[in-house]
Amino acid sequence: MAYASLREFLQALEEAGELIQVDEEVDWYLEVGAFARRMADVSGGALLFTNVKDYGPGHRLFVNSVGTKRRFAIALGLPPETTEAEVIEAFAQRIKRGMPPKEVATGPCKEHIRHGEAVDVLAFPAPHWNEKDGGRYIGTWNSIVFRDPDSDWVNVGLYRNVVHTRNEVGILPLPAKHFVRVMKKYHDAGRAMPIAIAMGAEPILPIVAATPFEYGVNEYDMAGALRQAPLEVVRCETSDLLVPATSEIVLEGHVNPGELRDEGPFGEFTGYYGGARAPRPVVRIDCVTHRDDPILTGSFEGKPVVEDHLQGTVAYSALLKNRLDDLGLAVRGVYTDPWSLTFIVVVSLKPQFMGHTFQVASAIWSCRLGVKVNWVITVDEDIDPTNLHEVWWAISTRCKGDRDIFIKGHDYGHPLHPCLTPEERKQGIGFKVHLDACWPANWPRDDTWRPPVCDWHSFPEEVRARVLAKLERLRGGRGE
Ligand SMILES: Cc1cc2nc3c(=O)[nH]c(=O)nc-3n(C[C@H](O)[C@H](O)[C@H](O)COP(=O)(O)O)c2cc1C
Ligand SMILES: [Mn+2]
Description:
Elements lengths: L5 H10 L3 E4 L8 H11 L4 E4 L10 E4 L5 H7 L8 H11 L7 E2 L8 E4 L21 E3 L2 E6 L6 E4 L3 E5 L2 E3 L7 H11 L4 E7 L4 H6 L9 H9 L4 E4 L6 E3 L4 E7 L4 E4 L2 E2 L5 E2 L3 E13 L4 E4 L8 H20 L4 E5 L8 E6 L6 H10 L9 E6 L7 H11 L2 H4 E8 L9 H6 L1 E9 L23 H14 L6
Parallel strand pairs: 1-2, 3-19, 4-12, 21-22, 22-24
Antiparallel strand pairs: 2-3, 5-18, 6-9, 7-8, 7-11, 9-10, 10-18, 11-14, 12-13, 14-18, 15-18, 16-17, 20-21, 23-24
Bound molecules: flavin mononucleotide and manganese (II) ion.
C-alpha cells in the first residue's frame, strides 16, 4: 500500500501506536533535539510537535519518522513486525525495476505560493538540534531534486540545509555525491543550478534521497518502485523541475557558480560533531510553496541508533546484496549493522575457491557505495550476518589475525571519519580492511581441520523433538 502523503503516513503511525504528539510548547533551540535524542535512545515513537516556541499552532514539526525498525517497515507498507532481514529483502527486490512518476496538474503543495519579498524560510520551525551546531537547520529530512543538464536524469538527494537568511540556505553535499557532479556541469557552463527542496513528501522519498543509487539512476523511478505506485509530481513555479504533489513545503531555488558561505559544524551520523565550519554552496530561494498548516520534517543526527543509521542499514545491505547477486557471487546475505554507520559490512557466503572471499570484498569496494565501506568481514554461510554475536563468534574462532586480515592504507577516507587525522579527513585519505572469518577455502572438510560445531542443531533431530515435547509439558504449553 502506498501512502499518498505524509499525512496518510502519520495516520498509519497513529494507528500502530508509533506516533507521539507533543502539544506542550517545545523550544526549537535544543529541546526538539533532546526530545529526538531521547526517543532514539529508548527506541521510542515518532514525534509530531504542534506548538513550537515562537510559532504556535499551524506550524507543525515532524521528527524521527523511520527511527525504529517497526516504522521503517510501516513506511514501506509492510506489517510493523516484519523482520529487518525481510525489510532488506523487500527493498532489494523492489528496486530491481523502476516505476516512473506521474505528472499531475496541481496538488496540495500549491495551496500557498510565495514569491520574492514574501519568501521567508523561518516561517517554518527549523530546529537548532545539538548545542554546537552552526545554526538552525531547516533541511535534515528533505528531498533535494535536480536534473542533469545533459540528459533526462533526475536525482533526488538528502543534503543538510542551514538557514542563512530569510531567502538563503546553505547546502552540504560531500565530495562523492551526485549533487557535486551535477553542480559542476552547470557551473562549468557558467549557469546557475536550479534545485527544489521538498519537505514532507510521502514517507519513501527521503529514504530514496538518502540511498546512494548509481549515477544516472532516476530516483523518482526508485521511489515509485519502493512505493509500488507511481509518485505524483507537479511542476515548480520558477523552474521546470517536478516535485511531489503532496509535499508539505517546497523551497524552489538556485545555486550560483562560486557563491560560498560558511556552514557547519553539525552533530553528525558518526556520533560526533563533524564538518567543521567552512565555506559551502548557498541556495537562493526564489519561491516557497506549501500546504495549509504545513508540517516541516526533520531528522536528528548523532550517536547510533537514529533513523539515518537504519536507513543506511537497509539501503546498503539491499544494494550490496543486489550487486553481489548480479555478479554471480552467490552470497547468503549482506548486512551492515546500524552501529557500524555503513563503515563495516558483513557478508555471509560459502567460499568455493581460494580468494573467493577477497573477490567479494573487492566487488563491494569497486562500486560507488562501497567507496565509503572501510571494513568487509566475510563469514561462512552458517553465520547469520544480521546477528552480531554470531559474527563475533566467527571472528573469534575462524580468523587467524596474521593470516586472514588484509589492510590497505592510502585509500578513500570519509571526510567525517573521526579516526582519521584532521589532515587525512580534509584530503580524503583512509583505509580498507578485509577481515576473513571463513574457514580457509583450501582446508579439507574434515573434523580435524574444521572442528564440528557444537550447538542445538548438532543434537539428533529425534532427541531435540523429544526434549521439546518434554519442555512443553513441563512449562504447561509455554515451552520454546
Ligand atoms: C538524515 C540524513 C542526513 C544526511 N545529510 C547529508 C549531508 O548533509 N550531506 C551529504 O552529502 N549527505 C548527507 N546524507 C547522505 C546522503 O543523503 C546520501 O549519501 C545520498 O546517497 C546522497 O544522494 P546522491 O547519492 O544522489 O548524491 C544524509 C543522509 C541522511 C539519512
Ligand atoms: Mn543519486
